[in-house]
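B., you asked whether I could sanity-check this one before it goes into the benchmark set. Here's the sequence:
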Amino acid sequence: MKRFMISVVAVFAAVAMAQFTPGNVECIAPASPGGGWDFTCRVPAAQVMPQLDLVPGSIQVTNLSGGGGGIAYANVVTQREGDEDLIVAASVATATRLAQDVFAGFTADDVRWFGALGADYGTLAVDVNSDIETLDDLIAAMQEDPEALTFVGGSAVGGFDHIKVLQLARAGGIQDILPFRYVSFDGGATAIIEVKGGRADVFTGDISELIGELDAGTMRALAVFAPERIDRVADVPTATELGYELIAPNWRGFYGAPGISDEAYDYWVNAVETVANSEQWATLREENGLAPFESFGANFEDFVREQIAIMREISQELGVIE
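And here's what the prediction gave me:
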């Protein structure tokens, strides 16, 4: 009996040691404040995770912009190995840059993929005083003089925001898509300021980045690239209903540093899943125009690799890469 009790105590001690508890958690947003990656860190992570007691205290949000997410990715891989208190905002833009081999030779295998908890659909928008009032107006302007318009977004040249412009051009029957001018900024919020300031014509990004401007009446969304209208912005038509076959969902989720323990990995996978299933996140997700989308752990890793393959094919088709 004594040996049995010692064995039981040893088992429980081993289990206790194997459990992971986060310390001072940091969330890296690979762009400037105000964009989609920043939102992913500040809302589902920094706002909801403490509410659900998934982290002790608060989460520090660090904006590490540059290279379409490449600066943050390289920093995590080379400087943060084994950091179990780190989570990083990710999206299809991350998969796009990996597909194009522009992250300094790094691959999807260099980090740990935790999960995704929402879909943020693409959109194009103009200043409320712009002469471009509809998506048809924009297509007509693109056909008439491709070099006259300046598109701006929060992803790098060749990134997901840029690709959405090229996909729309193709959907509008425009064959030569190379002349379109796209200027990259370190975050959607900065790109929106350029449009509002009259230094650019069209913002390309995701609907959550526009909510504040639409509510204030300072910007006009021409369409949302979703399969159906989004309740939060129900007056914005889909591109499909306007006659342009384009659906462009941008999943939002998190990855972590290489070299973390399986216990820490499992903890963060479960944490992301817990947030995804919470009432708090459901309310905030709908308020910010995101649609439900969930993928976690090993399934999410497989999904990311599939996304990379898809975005590589799209990038080659559009001439972004060879």
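One thing to flag: The chain has two domains: 22-119+250-317, 121-233. Otherwise nothing jumped out at me.
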